[in-house]
Amino acid sequence: MTQLKQGERIDDLMRNGLKLIQREDGFRFGTDSVLLADFALYGNPEYAVDLGTGSGILPILMADAQPRAHFDAVELQEEAADRAARSVKMNGQEEKITVHHMDMRRAPKELGYGKYTCCVCNPPYGKKESTLASERENVRLARHEGDISIEEICKCAAQLLKNGGRFHVVFPAQRALELMNAMQSAHLAPKRVRLVEFMAGKTPKLILMDAVKGGGSQLHWMPTLVLFEDDGSPTAEYRRIYRMDDAQEKEK
Q1: Nearest Cα to 33, choosing from 25, 22, 24?
Q2: 185-234, pLDDT tens digit by residue?
Q3: Which of 96, 131, 141, 168 shows the greatest Cβ crowding within 10 Å of its Cβ?
Q4: Which candidate, 34, 18, 64, 17, places its Cα nearest to that of 240?
Q5: What ranges in 56-135 are assigned the alpha helix state H?
């Protein structure tokens, strides 16, 4: 039986019995992580790395869909890394996911330069010195750029990836140009792009993007991902990503 620490809870991911340990008063994963986990299921990577794994949601979801891949999950905050490791153990994924408590900038040296075919990251959205920081340190680091920038994240991803490897990111749509510039500066060529709208015709809030190390300049624009119909019900694509229909079938 999984032992919880004070202030923790277990959330059911409604997917093949997967569960996640999270703090009740801390930063918890959201829709963006689930969207990125689905978007990053591209090809069949043998080795993948998640930069800033937090609760471990990305590798836990992706390892379930890609059972042959091994994931290294990197997390700066010791408490978060501990929760992620315990969640991995709770889900019986120890052979597929290894959690590392470290600054992601140390990852290339510690884990291996040019080792991975896949890198994923759900980076902090708040630009340094442009957003109001949270009072809680764990929430602040998860939501706002601290001493690491999107440029440094892209550089780290490029060092970890093999030539031809892919870097998958979810980011605020209004900062898309900044993300592309950071990717190109790190010799990562933006490739697949998908805007995310909460309702059709609304201004996109998020962008899903990947880049290929050493790739060419051609972009592939995917259909816009719309999450909700006009009546507020989830779209068919959103239901597929969240596997809502599968969960309903199991409840019958």
Answers
A1: 22
A2: 999 999 999 999 999 999 999 999 999 999 999 999 999 999 999 999 99
A3: 168
A4: 34
A5: 57-65, 78-90, 107-111
